[in-house]
Amino acid sequence: MPDLKPFIVIGLALGGVYAMSGVGLVVLFRTTGVLNLAYGAVGALGSLVAFTMIDHGQNEWVAYGVAILLGGVLTLLYGWFLGPPLADRDPLVKASATLGFALILLGFMQWRWTADVRSLRLPTSDWQYTWDWLRINVTQAIGVVFPLVVTIGTVLFLKRSKLGAAMRALADDRENTALLGVPVRRVEASAWFVSGLLFGFSGLLLASLVSMEIAALTFSIPIAALAAALIGKVESIWVTFFAAFVIGIIQAELNAFRSLAEFRNMTPFVCAIIVLLWFGWRRQVEGREA
Amino acid sequence: MATVAAPAPDTSERIDTRLPSMISATTPLRLIVLAAMLAVLLFVIPWLLTAFWMQIMLQAVIYSAVTLGLGLLVGRVGMFSLCQIVFVATGAWVSLRLAQEWSLPFPVLLVLTGLITGAVGAVIGIPALRLSGLYLALITLMAAGALTLLLRVYKFPNGGSGFWGFDKGKPSGSAQLARPAIALGDLAYYRYCVIVVALLFVLVTWHIKGKPGRAWASIRQSQVTAVAAGVDTTLYKLWAFALSACITGVAGALLAAGPGGVTVNQFPVESSILLLAVVLMGGVYSIWGALVAAFLLRILPRLLEQQIGLSPEVLTMLFGVGVIQVLLTTPGGIIADLGRLVDGVRRRLRRSPIGPPAPVTGDDVLVGESS
Predict the structure, then answer these.
(1) Is 0.90 exceeded by the ipTM?
(2) In chain A, which among 125-164 make CB contacts under 8 A with chain B?
């Protein structure tokens, strides 16, 4: 049996980053009915902007702040201008429109930054700590702890705050919520903005932990967050959270098995396909029983 | 006692809720136009273009089969697939693997490749029978991701043994399929591809005009009504997915025998998204939208790059804008706009008074929005 311990930390960190995007996707979908498939592109653009700012001698913490804020602002702008005209459309059409947004951002990134090899190393990656076999840097620690804080915060926010209650009401019935006097556009804008901040933060961490290749950072790498959200039926924040960690850990642990290592990146896809097939099968069984 | 007669319904203002027809009735004039188009593609285009542009044209012809397959799914059945480019790769892989194992005539190879890729498509499409449109699109995206990674590991067959036919010890750059004996040269192969793709268009037209087309239209309009009318929705949805994958697989085999063959990096996941974008922009309610989509995907980027130095990345951005615009305002895509333009010109030429505006059908039931 190969030694699995060295890969636990990176698996947890990856899972945490997936969880953060996944929670953003779920909150946004529950509030607006939009599955934002441009979340990877938003995060990728933020990380590239941060890279350029640092390259031009700007303070790196300011650059990271700008990257996260850019994620929030871009997502908010999309939601503000295109959310209302698409509000009554099928979820598939809403999701397809976000693919259009992803293409706009992808084209811009490939045009502005080309395909040069670049890397973004957060300063927290240099702060290493070692206890016995456990070796962890602060970026990885942030990747593990911050999503947990975000998830607990989101759940409490949705349960306890007035805005959270409005978001939950919107998820149930948009028209009735509007009739009750809830400022629908403002509530939706909050969901767009907050989810965008999460996408921006995730993009920054993914760029540091995995790669800064533009197309991969836009679609392939962050797709694991979507897989986690799908496992949670784009509804349950906690299921999404745990699914993301399971995917991250399996993906990292497969590195320990020589024959399976090259298939490790298939983990999110395979997990999502199995779960979706299970949902389909359950639906059919329930349909028969009903 | 005076009675008030009920007002007669004003039929002129009745909203047409039917989906636009994907094909028009076959008339002698239309047949002549189609024959002329084919003749232009076969004889005039090769005479006009340089070797470089002929390669681009060949790609456009092959990709028009790919856009046709996706347009069929989206426009006819209302199902989105985000793994069509992976089906192209699957078709290329299957044809190369079959050719490595047996010495088959090229047409037989194409048919077998289509059938096997169609079967793969049907397997991926099975969830479509139980899940909603959004989940189907996502499951195809996940399948695309998984199959792309599988291809990156095993690559295209290079003479190795076993199921994958891949030998890690041998170079694994591009893989090329042997061309048919009657089309060894580039020009002859281009003409061969035009004829094969034309046959694929005929196959799709035959389906749409026949029973499957009527079943797809009813499913697309309302699945509940289709079931009530006795349509086997399971069978016909799976059929559509398999047919789309089959056509795309044949295109993959044609691509594998094209100049330069195929390489693994030619089929990234994002290409499927770009493909969906151009198909929506081209127009999904007309089979001719597939030609516009292939033009947008393969010819326009080169044309703009050569003529005005516009980078293909800028075009990707414009495609993104185009998708959003199509979803918001013009579900019929460019081909519908062209149709309206031609109608307008025709009316002006005849100097007839301008009639009522043509009903823009499908606005409220765009892709995937039927119940």
Answers:
(1) no
(2) none
User: Which residue type is seen at B67?
Assistant: T
pLDDT tens for each residue of A196-212: 998 998 888 888 877 77
Is there a contact between A143 and A210 (Cβ–Cβ < 8 Å)? no
**What's the confidence (pLDDT) of residue B363?**
40
Closest-CA distance of chain B to residue A123, Å: 31
* CB contacts, 8 Å: B145 with chain A: 220, 223, 266, 268-269
Strands (DSSP E) found in chain B:
none
Q: What is the pLDDT of residues B84-128, one digit of tens each?
A: 999 999 999 999 999 988 888 999 999 999 999 999 998 888 876
State whether residue B175 is helix, strand or coil: strand
CATH of the domain at A89: 1.10.3470
- Structural domain span for residue B112: 29-350
pLDDT digits (tens, 9 = 90+) for B143-183: 888 888 888 888 888 777 778 877 777 776 778 888 888 88
**Under a CB-based contact definition with an 8 Å cutoff, are residues A283 and A233 in contact?**
no
Name the residue facing A218 among B127, B130, B270 (closest C-beta): B270
Cβ-based neighbours of B254, under 8 Å, separated by 6 or more: B62, B65, B110, B193, B196, B197
Any domain includes B301:
yes
Of B130, B311, B313, the CB nearest to A280: B130
Give per-residue pLDDT as tens, B289-313.
889 899 998 999 888 888 888 888 8
Q: How many structural domains are present in chain A?
A: 1
Q: What is the DSSP string of A126-163?
A: G-EEEETTEEEEHHHHHHHHHHHHHHHHHHHHHHHSHH
Residue B362 lies in a domain: no
Residue of B nearest to A264 (CA): B149
Given CB atoms, is A88 within the 8 Å cutoff of chain B?
Answer: no
A227 at the B interface (CB within 8 A)? yes
Closest approach of A195 to chain B, Cα-based (Å): 20
Report the predicted TM-score, pTM, of the whole model to 2 decimal places: 0.84
Averaged pLDDT score across all residues of chain A: 84
Number of folded domains that form chain B: 1
In a domain, residue B128? The reply is yes
A219 and B324 within 8 Å at the Cβ level: the answer is no
- Supply the pLDDT for residue A255: 81
Q: Is residue B369 part of a domain?
A: no
Which of A86, A110, A276 lies closest to B127 in CB terms? Answer: A276
Which domain does A169 fall in, by range?
A: 5-289
Contact: A95, B137; criterion CB under 8 Å: yes
Contact A177, A170 (CB under 8 A): yes
Nearest CA to B248 among B359, B94, B43?
B94
Taking the Cβ of residue A95 and every Cβ of chain B, the question of whether any pair is shorter than 8 Å is answered with yes
Could you tell me the CATH number of the domain that includes residue B52? 1.10.3470
